[in-house]
């Protein structure tokens, strides 16, 4: 798969690529994303140096949680939306103390909120069977994940 820009449009382009995969290929991508979010993002999105640096500092527990949220949506061909990235230049100008220096850091610290809502219903064709999905099984899923940014 190709690398795409890390923008709302790039995320939608990547979802288009992913959702054109077979179910087995899509599940493999979701599993990689779940267990190795950082390398998966770096392989699939064009990140600038600041974004790579930020991602490298995210704690493993958060990466694992985000990976699970995104993997659930992707494995079920759910909706993922991303707000546009913040405009750092205007934020830095607002934080300037008048002599060209920033009042408190470089203005790049941001809060990232990953919100998810979802539901997965599974009803095997035989309630006593552990055989998994079959042609008579019913699986209904609905997953939506959104990414929001906030400059601090």
What do these coordinates show?
The protein is α/β, with parallel strands linked by helices and 152 residues long. Helices cover 43% and strands 24% of the residues. It contains 6 helices and 5 strands; from the N terminus they run βαααβααβαββ. The strands form 2 sheets. A 3-stranded mixed β-sheet has the order 3-5-4. Strands 1-2 form a two-stranded parallel sheet. Helix 2 crosses helix 3 and helix 2 runs antiparallel to helix 5. The longest helix is centred in the middle third of the chain and has 16 residues. It starts with a strand and ends with a strand. About 6% of the residues have low confidence.
Q: Largest sheet, order of strands side by side?
A: 3-5-4
Shape: globular
Q: Return the structural class.
A: alpha/beta
Number of helices: 6
For the largest beta-sheet, the strand count, sense and barrel status come to: 3 strands, mixed
Which spans of ≥5 residues are poorly predicted at pLDDT below 50? 97-105
Average pLDDT metric: 79
Helix content: 40-55%
H and E string: EHHHEHHEHEE
Write a brief structural summary.
It contains six helices and five strands; from the N terminus they run E-H-H-H-E-H-H-E-H-E-E. By secondary structure, the chain is of the alpha/beta class.
SSE map:
Elements (H helix, E strand, L loop, with lengths): L3 E2 L2 H12 L3 H13 L1 H8 E2 L2 H8 L3 H16 L3 E4 L5 H8 L14 E14 L14 E14 L1
């Amino acid at each position: 798969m190709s690398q795409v820009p890390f923008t709302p449009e790039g995320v939608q382009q990547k979802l288009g690529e992913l959702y054109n995969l077979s179910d087995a290929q899509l599940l493999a991508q979701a599993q990689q994303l779940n267990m190795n979010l950082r390398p998966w993002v770096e392989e699939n999105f064009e990140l600038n140096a600041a974004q790579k640096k930020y991602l490298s500092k995210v704690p493993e527990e958060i990466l694992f949680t985000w990976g699970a949220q995104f993997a659930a949506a992707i494995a079920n061909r759910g909706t993922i939306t991303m707000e546009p990235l913040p405009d750092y230049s205007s934020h830095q100008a607002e934080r300037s103390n008048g002599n060209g220096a920033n009042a408190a850091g470089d203005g790049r610290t941001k809060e990232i909120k990953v919100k998810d809502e979802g539901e997965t219903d599974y009803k095997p064709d035989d309630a006593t069977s552990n055989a998994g999905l079959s042609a008579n099984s019913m699986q209904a899923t609905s997953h939506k994940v959104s990414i929001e940014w906030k400059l601090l």
